[in-house]
């Protein structure tokens, strides 16, 4: 398994390394960094990884060999022989998945996690990358672009706010209902239904795409890989 130690923090008298767990997919000169949102892990990017590289098979063994070459001073050579393909890296933010869980709230901010992403790019030997962030990951990506614009080939943001008072939701019956259902959600499937209604309008979710609605398609993609029980590749009955 691949880890990147991004910085160090003090826990009493003992120093512990902050480690990010990451995966790499595909090979190529085009580098893509995927930054996931709150409570998500690297596993959340399955459809995007498949679409970009054509495979969900991690390239970690090859990547680790390349990283060893880079650490010995051969980073330029390692970048130069990648060809015309696409290489994708996704990772667990600090505090989730297989990455380090830090003891204090002060250890978590979008600016700190943007520095984590930069440290990961350095660890991989990537001078520049196309950066795609989702939700909180998009906020982290904005900070990353502001800190080091020279490291960004392109910036793609999904389900993100620019901040300010205008980003606060209107307190109405729908918002209170979503908050209540969110608190009661016990499974990934229940959480998926609430998240979809939080991020998309009813009109968009009810729109037909072939025999399915967007709600059904997005729901299936959301829970794919988390819970395969009862899931179908078509528009079978998966929701209640």
Any overview of this molecule?
- The protein has about 240 residues and is an alpha/beta fold.
- The chain has 2 domains: about 1-165, Alpha/Beta hydrolase fold, catalytic domain (Rossmann fold, 3-Layer(aba) Sandwich), CATH 3.40.50.1820; about 170-225, no CATH class.
- The protein has 8 helices and 8 strands.
- Strands 1-2-4-3-5-6 form a 6-stranded mixed beta sheet, with helices on both faces. It has a two-stranded antiparallel sheet with strand order 7-8.
- Strand 7 (about 210) and strand 8 form a beta hairpin.
- Helix 6 crosses helix 8 (about 215-225).
- It is globular and about 50 Å long.
- Mean pLDDT is about 80; it is low at about 65-80, about 225-235 and about 235-240.
- The number of distinct helices, counting runs of at least 4 residues, comes to 8
Q: Looking at this structure, what is the CATH superfamily of the largest domain?
A: Alpha/Beta hydrolase fold, catalytic domain
Radius of gyration: 19 Å
Q: How many domains would you count in the coordinates?
A: 2
> Widest sheet: strand order?
1-2-4-3-5-6
What is the CATH class of the largest domain?
A: Alpha Beta
Structural class: alpha/beta
Overall residue-averaged pLDDT value = 81
Give the CATH topology of the largest domain: Rossmann fold
Q: Based on the structure given, which CATH architecture of the largest domain is correct?
A: 3-Layer(aba) Sandwich
Largest β-sheet summary: 6 strands, mixed
Could you state the order of secondary-structure elements as H and E?
EEEHHEHEHEHHHEEH
- Proportion of residues in extended strands: 15-25%
State the distance separating the first and last CA atoms.
38 Å
Number of strands: 8
Give unreliable regions as ranges: 67-81, 225-234, 236-240
Q: Estimate the helix proportion, in percent.
A: 25-40%
Organism: Oryza meyeriana var. granulata
Protein name: AB hydrolase-1 domain-containing protein
Region (Disordered): 49-81
Domain AB hydrolase-1: 79-160
């Amino acid at each position: 398994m691949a880890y990147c130690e991004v910085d160090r923090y003090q826990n009493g008298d003992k120093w512990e390394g902050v480690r990010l767990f990451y995966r790499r997919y595909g090979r190529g000169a085009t580098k893509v960094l995927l930054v996931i949102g709150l409570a998500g892990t690297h596993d959340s990017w399955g459809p995007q990884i498949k679409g970009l590289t054509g495979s969900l098979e991690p390239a970690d063994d090859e990547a680790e060999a390349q990283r060893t070459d880079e650490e010995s001073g051969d980073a330029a050579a390692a970048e130069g022989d990648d060809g015309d393909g696409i290489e994708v890296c996704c990772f667990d933010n600090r505090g989730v998945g297989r990455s380090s869980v830090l003891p204090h709230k002060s250890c978590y901010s979008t600016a700190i996690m943007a520095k984590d992403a930069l440290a990961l790019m350095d660890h991989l030997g990537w001078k520049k990358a196309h950066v795609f962030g989702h939700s909180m990951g998009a906020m982290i990506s904005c900070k990353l672009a502001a800190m080091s614009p020279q490291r960004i080939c392109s910036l793609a943001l999904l389900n993100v706010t620019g901040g300010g008072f205008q980003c606060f939701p209107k307190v109405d019956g729908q918002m209170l209902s979503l908050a209540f259902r969110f608190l009661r959600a016990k499974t990934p499937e229940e959480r998926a239904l609430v998240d979809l209604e939080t991020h998309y309008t009813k009109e968009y979710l009810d729109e037909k795409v072939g025999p399915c609605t967007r709600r059904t398609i997005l729901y299936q993609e959301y829970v794919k890989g988390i819970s395969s029980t009862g899931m179908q590749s078509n528009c079978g009955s998966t929701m209640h």
